[in-house]
Amino acid sequence: MAVATTKNESQEIILQGIWKDNPIFRQVLGICSTLAVTNLVLNTIVMCTALTFTTTLSSLTISLMRNSTPRRIRMMVQTLVIAFYVILVDIFLKAYWPEMSTSLGPYVGLIITNCIIMGRCEAYAGKYPAIPSAIDGFFMGVGYSCILLIISIIRELIGMGSILGIPMPFFSSHWDKWIIMVMPPGAFFTLALVIWMFRTFQKDEEDDKK
Amino acid sequence: MTNSNEFINIVIICFSSIFTGNILLSYFLGMCPFIAVSKEVKTAFGLGMAVVFVLTFTCLLNWLTYHYILIPFQLEFFRFIMFIITIAAFVQFVEMVLERYSPLLYTNLGIFLPLITVNCAILGASLFMVIRDYSLVGSVAYGFGSGVGWMLAIVSMAGIRKRLVINKIPKGLQGPGITLIIAGMMALAFIGFTGVLQGQ
User: Fold this and answer.
1) Phi (first) and psi of residue A85, to 5 degrees
2) The model's pTM
3) A110 assigned to some structural domain
4) What is the structure's pLDDT at A23?
5) Shortest distance, CA B194 to any CA of chain A (angstroms)
6) Contact A189 B173 (CB under 8 A)
């Protein structure tokens, strides 16, 4: 493992992040801080970018420091590293996109307590070299973002009849808007349905292999 | 007059954080333990109590830190790290005190305390408190109310999940899937409380 990753290895990591070990429908982790912003596609994109940025860089940093961090205080170190990157994101949004910063509210800060980042640092970045760790962090973030994007597209389309604020042909004219979809219960229902769908697919795939 | 207004205000903050703006069901905070630890009513209750306790006091402490340390030194952007350190230190402190003076409470509550440090509800409540600009008493009321709301949600979820064992659920929906659907229904029910506050 000490050598830089071969092509196969990184493919394996990528596949794991997006499909096999997808943080949301396999592990059901870290949905707290991001589910709240899935009522609009734009907010979700910004939030997911912020999250992927943080997972990648904090995995990289933790991995670089893994030999010099005493085991006892590693949790504290991990939290501080993650918090550092989240503060960067927060300041950046405040400076260049203040409206987005207000509409995301406290959820940017809550990336710190997102279990996925911490979980990846603990499970992967603490044991492996820097580059695979960064790849792992990045694709965990991407796998996570995919699901949230699906959820946000469903919610915005059915709830407001638009995607990214652009009215969609059928949904804006002939569709009675389901306001409940942009309210909190809609997020729970959509996530449950998406998890149900993916888990069923995955199960079929496993059965095929046998 | 101002006194009674202030009092009503605090009651409203507390009520709305329990029912209309439930921290779990309308802000999605503290979802991970909500899905993972809601299998037993007893455990859910223990965790809920610990959350109420920690939330109330960390809101108080974080309000003080924010208004007396971060604002005078213009370090507001530093609040994420500061709040997390306060929460972690407080939880550690409570754990030590409980272990020393109340072994009974420690065995009941102690195992949940370390879990709480990484619970997003705790940090989330502190961040909301800053954004909404509550007063000191308001923040404490908000922390307490959020804690009670969270406990209410997780205990009722545990009660419902106990009955689920005997029901037939599609394979892919078992576990987290069905929990989320129930949470959605609970969120729907809690939305019904919205009218109560507007009636004032």
Assistant:
1) -70, -35
2) 0.83
3) yes
4) 65
5) 13
6) no
The residue ranges of every structural domain in chain B are 17-190
The answer to whether A159 touches A39, Cβ cutoff 8 Å, is yes
Which of B19, B26, B62, B120 should be substituted to probe chain A, the one whose Cβ sees the most A Cβ atoms within 10 Å? Answer: B120
Q: What is the domain range of residue A161?
A: 23-209
Asked whether residue A5 is assigned to any structural domain, the reply reads no
ipTM, two decimals: 0.82
Q: Are A91 and A103 in contact (CB under 8 A)?
A: no
A-B interface: how many C-beta pairs under 8 angstroms? 124
Q: What is the pLDDT of residues A52-92, one digit of tens each?
A: 999 899 888 888 888 887 777 777 888 888 889 999 998 89
Does some domain include residue A15? no
Q: Of the candidates B77, B127, B184, which has its C-beta nearest A189's C-beta?
A: B184
Asked whether the predicted pLDDT for residue B199 surpasses 60, the reply is: no
Relative orientation angle of helices B136-164 and B41-65, to the nearest 10 degrees = 160
Please list every residue in chain B whose beta carbon sits closer than 8 Å to the beta carbon of residue A114: 120
Number of domains present in the structure of chain A: 1
pLDDT in tens, B98-124: 888 878 777 776 667 776 766 778 888
The tokens for B58 are 């960390």
